[in-house]
Automatic annotation (TrEMBL):
It comes from Cesiribacter andamanensis AMV16. One of its GO terms (molecular function) is metal ion binding. Keywords: Signal. Residues 53-172 form the Peptidase M16 N-terminal domain. This is Peptidase M16 inactive domain protein. The keyword Signal applies. InterPro entries: Metalloenz_LuxS/M16, MPP/UQCRC_Complex, Pept_M16_N, Peptidase_M16_C. Pfam families: Peptidase_M16, Peptidase_M16_C. Residues 199-375 form the Peptidase M16 C-terminal domain. Residues 1-21 form the signal peptide.
Amino acid sequence: MKALKYIALAAGLLCATGVTAQVDRSKLPAPGPAPEIKLGTYETFELKNGLKVIVVRNTKLPQVSYSLLIDRDPIVEGDKAGYVSLAGQLLRSGTSSRTKDQIDEEIDFIGASLSTSSTGVYGSSLSRHKEKLFALMADVVLNPSFPQAEFDRLLKQTKSGMASQKDNPQYIANRVQAKLLYGAEHPYGELNSEATLDNISLQDVQQYYQTYFKPNAAYLAIVGDITKKEAQKLANQYFGKWKKGTVPTHQYASPAPLQQPVIAVVDRPSSVQSIVQITHPIALKPADADVIPARLMNDILGGSDARLFNNLREAKGYTYGAYSSLDSDKLIGKFVAYANVRNAVTDSAVAEFMNELNRIRTEPVPQDELQKAKNFLTGSFARSLESPQTIASFALNTQRYGLDKNYYRDYLKKVAAVTPQDLQRVAQKYVQPDKAYILVVGNADEVAPGLSRFGKVSHFTAEGEPAKELSGDVDAQGVINNYLTAIGGEKKLAAVKDMRIVMKINFNGMEITNVQAKKLPGSYLNETSMNGQTMSKIIVADGKAFMAMGGQRQEVPAQQAAAIKIGAYPFPELMYAKEGITVELKGMEQVEGQEAYKLAIGAADGPKVIEYFAKESGLKLKTEGPTGTVLYKAYEEREGIKFPTKITMVTPQGALEGELTTLELNKGIAESVFN
């Protein structure tokens, strides 16, 4: 019996081996017909006031969600850029009958969620609370109170968030990209700033709401365990009296195409890697027939495991990932290929980007590579149908963009019909490296020379403005001398032998105290505390620098200690020559609306900090270092010398606001302070 089992097993293995040998696994199987798509059903109706409602019933889970969309044209906000976003945030801050806290309590009580934006409101809950949530949502949409206190809080929070991002290279790259692609007069190209936020009033926010929140410009998608009849009852009861009105429309000129590549470099001297973006606008609208072949082409070029990724990461090792995106838009779309690469290989990475962008334009995509992309897109599309939200999105897109009523039903048939010739045609139309911005944010001294092989290198500020050329009569030491004169003059500054400064710093509602004590010839204390408890302490004494934190004390490494020691002088700028500190003029930039000279400062063989000095006043406006950025504001004269009485410290954890509370000069600080 045991022998028979072994014989049967051997026979089974032989049969399996014989079947396997007949399949050539080196080739993809021949593509079959596009699968039949069975889209979920949806129903629609429209209220008398023009509100269009889409209902997707799904009883698998006892949940319901509501999504209200205001379908308006993009808006140019001008010198009040930022008010539209503020209006969306403020919408949830209270109604004529409920405070923000009451709304929060009612939402939490039923375990729901409710969020708002400048173009609508979204909420979800268990289906047994569907009417309660709908009533709350309608109250927020129809009766916002726009409280002044909440407006002031959100405005301050927005400024703080903006300040915390200012030195983030990715944030800078995205803002400069928008400005270059579309221009400051286009809704996609204008940038908000602290200056534009300061121009916004509560009335601007209210005016936006009153102008654009109209039912005849809105869609309401209802998804979940709810019938059309129930949806009609809720919509009529809570939104039936919403008054229709005329909503402004806007038209904008398309950006003029470039005639040759523009190499745009934004200097971030402290960057050890570069952000590279090769980008240009494209005229591709959501209803265009090219959308599907263009998506397949981009998946092959810059998807998660595609040509750019395999070249720049796998073959060359320049980056952790290289990708591209191609976005359609009813106004104007864009193409962008992007990666973060090491400074030393920035120009080589750009060369490989250009090679791949040109290759997909000039060489037909092999059939097996195209089929792989089709398979991936087909699977993604099929998986998306598992969500009832997808059905609502399809219905909404069909109405908003004027799609054919069978667009999504026939989607995979259109995918299957795409040929290599189609891909090459759309690549030549929508991927144009010879008419693109090659945007690089990084250390200009290290990367700009290599980038010159692609054309003339143009330098831009972090706000997307052309960097100003320096006149020959300005040098770095002259900028420093002007600063010393502006704050009091070298004679008065040299007379300061010791200094004690106390600042109160606010961070997320917490008050932190920072004390700095400086005494010639080189003693220094920097102590940070909260509620009387010391958090950290830096001390320079007897030529050595120490740091104490969490009960641990250690000597600071030599390179860091050098930077700390120069800061131990009451006015370090007086001692640069003596201490071997080099000062290099790097250009000019705008800082808080002021033209400023940009200086790189540090030991010849050590790390540099970047400091900005106002062209007009000579005062120091900003310092950028490896641990963050400090903005200096509200200079006031104390004992004949000007000091900043307010500062903003921008760190990866957020922005900290500091205010000078104590300043003592030549009071005879005891040496024991520096023990």
